[in-house]
Design a protein that fits this description.
The chain contains 5 helices and 3 strands. The protein is α+β, with helices and mostly antiparallel strands and about 110 residues long. β2, α5 and β3 form a beta-alpha-beta unit.
Length: about 110
């Protein structure tokens, strides 16, 4: 009788992370965890990731000026995200203006 080859649990989990939908979702969740590092402290203070659809990361910026700055740096952010995942997790970044739902106080 042949002995079966044992595989370390860490190796099994790494393979599942790379080859399953759940693994991909866990990788995408790391974007939120590491946003400050991925976008850089200057950009991350002025915009947040809001979702991913069809490999496009949607980022909500606090003003038109910051929308423009995110647009200028988007390829750097995408490159960092994909390097973190060691594969193409995000193919584009789309910046939207944050919708401030809080009512503004009347001007005096």
């Amino acid at each position: 009788m042949k002995k079966s080859k044992l595989t370390a649990i860490g190796k099994i989990l790494d393979e599942m992370k790379r080859s399953t939908e759940l693994g991909e979702q866990l990788e995408k969740a790391r974007i939120w965890e590491r946003w400050n590092e991925l976008a850089g402290p200057h950009l991350s203070a002025h915009g947040l990731p809001r979702g991913i659809r069809d490999n496009v990361l949607y980022v909500e910026a606090e003003s038109p000026v910051w929308m423009h700055r995110f647009a200028l740096r988007k390829w750097d952010v995408i490159k960092r995200i994909n390097a973190m995942a060691d594969r193409e997790l995000v193919s584009d970044l789309f910046v939207v203006l944050r919708d401030d739902e809080a009512p503004q106080p009347p001007a005096e």
